[in-house]
Amino acid sequence: MARARDTRDRILFGAEEVVLRDGVAHLTLEAAANEAGVSKGGILYHFPTRAALVAAMVERLSSQFTEDLERHGAGSGLPGAFTRAYLEATFGPSGDAVASRERRLGAAVIAGVAADTELLEPLREQFATWQHALVTDGLPPAGASLVRLAADGLWFTELLGLAPLDEDLRSSVREELLGHLGASLQQQQGATPRKARAGRSVPEGDRT
Questions:
Q1: 1-48 under CATH 1.10.510.10, yes or no
Q2: Looking at the chain, which residues constitute the CATH 1.10.10.60 domain(s)?
Q3: In the chain, which segments carry CATH 1.10.357?
């Protein structure tokens, strides 16, 4: 089982290398197999079609982000923890070599699946899961969603090279969003006691 998993991972890494070097249009099962050093039968065992291979690449990208969320404390259960983790995971160092590779790969893969609704469906489902976690994170849903939309906007501008921010401005935007997150948390914590007081019944004898 471990050997099969290693082979599968090697194929996926090989496919990523093909996409980064030659572009997603040149990704074929044969090209991925050659890059990974496996036989045609070996790749067909794991990925019977090119669509299955691309879908696995998209799943791998979203899994890597989910792992980043956990590293930043998304599962701590504290109010606002998931939203903060989403922000921090997205605003990782822009110059980091691994992050740069993931952005380039993400751009290539997304370009390849954008026209295929079926291949995009798992990504849509993953974003829906993240959005649900955000709006149930103990913050005003609009505030948490604003952080997510800003973070996603940063990701897409860097992914596609659409006037990405320089490092100083990028850092300032991160601080602004963290400030917004803190204010939203204070707002929510302040609203909870007020709701509790408003819902407290007045004893019959105390009414005038």
A1: no
A2: 1-48
A3: 54-191
9 vs 5, 94, 126, CA distance in Å?
6, 25, 21
> Beta-carbon neighbour count of residue 6 at 10 Å?
10
9-13, 32-36, 185-189, 193-197: range with lowest mean pLDDT: 193-197
- Architecture (CATH level 2) of domain 54-191: Orthogonal Bundle (1.10)
Q: What tokens does 159 get?
A: 């992914």
Q: What is the pLDDT of residue 41?
A: 94
